[in-house]
Design brief:
Length: about 190
């Protein structure tokens, strides 16, 4: 992204203000929430295609053919480098590290066989990753305020009768919440 901005500044690329606003809006979404990064990848080229094609057609018409042919070496090299790095990156495993996941706890309890799991908010993404349907995951905007507040009150046991109703209502058979270490006590 920084390379693209640097190239635009170096070449003097200009865009209509509406396209700049749309591009920066999608860029803001992508930088604020990772799940919107695909929007930038999908819509960014659409916003840029026509203005860039028109500007570079004019630039290419002003250059002699020999300069144009020699000027293609850098983009081709960059494209080959990009394809190579992407290929190497795709060979890596996308599974999270065992050090930061409760993989052994999930295997020992076999949550998938137990049934629906009441989980902590931060733990839902991992449960979803390993194929266990979480009660809640990191997409707070999809659940709504009432659902999120009820979940918070349930896990903090602020309203025990509502907590028990929640367990019955959603047929919860297990609770998957990471254990928080107790602070050491002074034995003096």
């Amino acid at each position: 992204m920084l390379g693209a901005f640097g190239f635009a500044l170096y070449r003097g690329v200009t865009l209509p203000w509406v396209r700049i606003v749309m591009l920066f809006g999608v860029l803001h979404l992508a930088l604020s929430q990772v799940r919107h990064a695909d929007l930038l990848g999908l819509l960014g080229p659409i916003f840029l295609a026509r203005p860039l094609a028109e500007q570079f057609k004019i630039v290419a018409a002003d250059k002699p053919d020999s300069l144009t042919r020699h000027g293609t070496l850098l983009p081709i090299t960059m494209l080959a480098l990009f394809v190579g790095v992407t290929g190497l990156a795709s060979l890596r495993s996308i599974a999270p590290s065992v050090r930061i996941t409760p993989a052994h706890a999930i295997q020992s309890v076999e949550f998938a066989k137990v049934g629906p799991v009441l989980n902590d908010y931060d733990f839902g993404g991992y449960l979803d990753f390993v194929g266990i349907a979480p009660f809640i995951d990191g997409r707070a905007e999809l659940y709504g305020e009432a659902y999120m507040l009820r979940h918070d009150r349930a896990l903090s046991l602020q309203n025990l009768p509502d907590f028990l109703r929640l367990l019955d209502e959603y047929r919860i058979r297990a609770i998957g919440r990471p254990r928080v270490a107790e602070p050491p006590t002074d034995k003096n």
